[in-house]
Amino acid sequence: MASSRGEFSSRFGFVMAAAGSAVGLGNIWGFPTQAASNGGAAFLLVYLFLTFTLAYPALMAELIIGRHAHANAVSALRLISPNTLLKRIGVSTGVFGFIVASLILSFYAIVASWMIAFCLSSLASLAGMESLSRWLTSFSLPRNMLFMLLFSGLTITIITAGVKQGIERWSARLMPALLVLLVLLVLYVLTLDGAMEGLKVYLLPDFERALSPKLIIAALGSAFFSLSLGVGTMLIYGSYISDKENLPVLGGLVTVVDISIAVLAGVLVLPAMYVALHNGVQIFTEAGALISEDTLIFTVLPELFATMGLVGKVVSFTFFFLMSIAALTSSISMLEVPVAYTIEEHGFSRKTAARAIGGAIAIVSTLILLNFDNLFGFVIAFTTRYSQPLLGFMFCVYAGWVWSRHSILEELRKGYPEVEQGLFWKIWPWYVKFLCPLIILAILAQSLIG
Ligand code: TRP
Predict the structure, then answer these.
(1) What is the pLDDT of residues 239-274, one digit of tens each?
(2) Report field, pTM of the whole predicted structure over 0.90
(3) Nearest CA to ligand 1 atom 15
């Protein structure tokens, strides 16, 4: 079975694909503003600590189960369950995971489509087509539909091409491009007036704010979203890793890349906001907090670019192009979850599965666009606040309690013969068994009560 499935051709290919999945809109715009309004460098330290002690172990649970089964989450959880009841629960978890992955894609495609539209708007403006440029940033239904369909089409095309020719090839091209663009933007923005003040806000630690329990829980939630955990994305990417590879090292690399890009994005976004302030753009809400989320991306930054003349148009194009790349390498990882399931469990061809499921998800996106005020926030909360932690909990329980410790060790030994002597094996099994499920339950309780 393993031979008929796709496999990443190299370690670099896997790291680019998994980092491509992890690095997305969450890193480049979620993390920086959260850090800025929640204690700067102290938030960063809390985030780093939580990522390595909790999100990384959960990532490893998905990668190890995936590589062992060389199959999608439904078959994988069935395979590692010792009895019928656990098999049934495992199958339900896998199925729920692919539904949640599809729903995440349905709203992610909408946000990503705005990035492409803003990117093209800067180009139109550079070419002197001002009315087209304005239409592209208009948030009208026709524009939203057009670009959502375009983005979904791109995602479907890459997934149709398969693991090596699609996911790996495009991630390996786009991720280095993303890094180069990000570094260039950072270097440019840091030369502008006001940038240093933003850097200070980002890097000066305020421990009092960063250590509040509510914040720690919020930081953990975003660490889980950022590493694409819970819905089986990392499990399916893990299933395409060759048996020769050392899993704890690969997972560690992906985690380091994910965090580094988030931290670097902070060095772009925060200074940019203070440059905007310096140029007369409003960056604080009436309550005195830094503007964040969609207003930051679609209002504050475009206003900043508008104060910068011709250079501003180029910077704007580069920034939204970067966001579009980040979104695309993440969206393909979401579509791969239901597609792999449909191919392996129901025998569909990759092309049919990618088109049918991608098409169905685009219909859900259309429904969200038609009923935006009621559905958009609801789908985000349902998937990321409630379902993701719940599913993450299930994966940890399966790795920690259901699957035998001996088989896990065997799986790890394949690419890392001396695993038993290493630190990973001394700590990880304990973490994934006790600490991860407990903390995830705490997040879940918090989001249900709060
Ligand atoms: N991690 C991506 C980001 O930071 C989003 C993402 C990709 C994701 N695949 C996922 C989130 C699966 C949850 C589940 O934007």
Answers:
(1) 999 999 999 999 999 999 999 999 999 999 999 999
(2) yes
(3) 24
